[in-house]
Design a protein that fits this description.
Elements (H helix, E strand, L loop, with lengths): L7 E9 L13 H21 L7 E10 L8 E8 L6 E10 L2 E14 L12 H7 L11
Antiparallel strand pairs: 1-3, 2-5, 3-4, 4-5
Length: 145
């Protein structure tokens, strides 16, 4: 599945790989890919104006990652984050990981996220300002310099 199909780009971030991200096989450990995806997702949430509670209004109902090529230190990765049309209380995030010095796709992943009421812990309708960003017609995108 192509992350860009029926989804719109909302965030791009760069993350340096660390020596400690590698495993005994000499490449970035599979679990670290999930941390890269999470880091990009939380940065996007923070940019949405939720920096004090970044990620606190959502829960991950499902996370996935397909590994295409092994990442090796040193280097910097770029994570592109796309979102699909919003549901009542949830939305789908798709992400792609590439090295900044190589345009090949190294991994594709994402998460189904559900908006929750922090007091009850139950799903809640997406706030209007978040829904406006997720709607297919909006022109919102954040790409840091």
């Amino acid at each position: 599945m192509d992350a860009k199909q029926d989804k719109k780009l909302v965030h791009v971030t760069r993350i340096p790989m660390r020596w400690g991200d590698m495993d005994a096989m000499g490449h970035v450990n599979n679990t670290v890919y999930f941390r890269y995806l999470e880091q990009a997702r939380i940065e996007w949430y923070a940019y949405l104006g939720r920096s004090k509670q970044a990620g606190m209004e959502t829960v991950v109902a499902h996370a996935h990652c397909s590994f295409m090529l092994p990442l090796t230190y040193p280097g910097t990765i770029e994570v592109q984050t796309y979102v699909g049309p919003p549901g009542r209380s949830s939305f789908e995030i798709e992400q792609e990981i590439r090295r900044t010095d190589d345009d090949r796709l190294y991994a594709r992943g994402g998460a189904r996220t559900v908006w929750v009421d922090r007091n009850t812990g139950k799903s809640a309708p997406l706030p209007d300002e978040v829904r406006a960003i997720l709607e297919p017609g909006s022109s919102y995108v954040y790409v840091p310099e």
